[in-house]
Each structure stands twice: as structure tokens, then as C-alpha cells.
Automatic annotation (TrEMBL):
This is ATP-dependent Clp protease adapter protein ClpS. It holds the Pfam family ClpS. The lineage of its organism: Bacteria, Bacillati, Actinomycetota, Actinomycetes, Micrococcales. Coiled coil: none annotated. Involved in the modulation of the specificity of the ClpAP-mediated ATP-dependent protein degradation.
Length: 99
């Protein structure tokens, strides 16, 4: 009787696929003509828990660059953050983080 072998998935293939599956996503807040800068700082402080310096820096990036990455992590969490930003009246989207 011959020896039976079991084909195991190639470990290299599994390693190559794992980083893609675990790649972070980002919540992006976009500049708008409606919300005051002080309000955006308050939203970032209240919702994300950022200190005043971090919240102000992010708000200034939104104001000057037109957008800022305000959070990074699992897709589901970033979608929740984007929805929360919408609830606060801010424009936000979710995207896959770039390498």
C-alpha cells in the first residue's frame, strides 16, 4: 500500500495574503464650506478623544489640504467613524490605507 500525503497550503502564499487582509483602512474628513474650524476641533476632541493640539492640527490639515486622515484601523470601525462624522455634519469617507 502506498504512502498517502496531504497537500498543505503553501506557507508563503498564506503569508503573502495575510498582510493584505490585515491592511488598515482610513477615515478621511473633507473640508466643507459650512462648519466652523472651532466646531471641527470640538468634534475631533469629543468623538475621537484627541487633545486640543492633535485636534487642531487635524482641523488645519482639513482646512489647508482639503482633507485629513483622522483615524486608521479595521474597515468596520472606520465605517462607524465616517458615519459618526456624518452625524456631526462633517463630510467623511473611508479608504484603504496606502502603503
Amino acid at each position: 500500500m502506498g504512502l498517502m500525503t496531504t497537500a498543505w497550503p503553501d506557507a508563503d502564499v498564506a503569508r503573502e495574503q495575510a498582510p493584505a487582509a490585515a491592511s488598515p483602512w482610513q477615515t478621511i474628513v473633507w473640508d466643507d464650506p459650512v462648519n466652523l474650524m472651532s466646531y471641527v476641533v470640538r468634534v475631533f476632541r469629543d468623538y475621537f478623544g484627541y487633545d486640543t493640539d492633535r485636534a487642531t492640527a487635524l482641523m488645519l490639515r482639513v482646512h489647508h489640504d482639503g482633507h485629513a486622515v483622522v483615524a486608521e484601523g479595521a474597515r468596520e470601525q472606520m465605517e462607524l467613524h465616517a458615519q459618526a462624522m456624518h452625524d456631526y455634519g462633517l463630510w467623511a469617507t473611508v479608504r484603504k490605507a496606502t502603503e
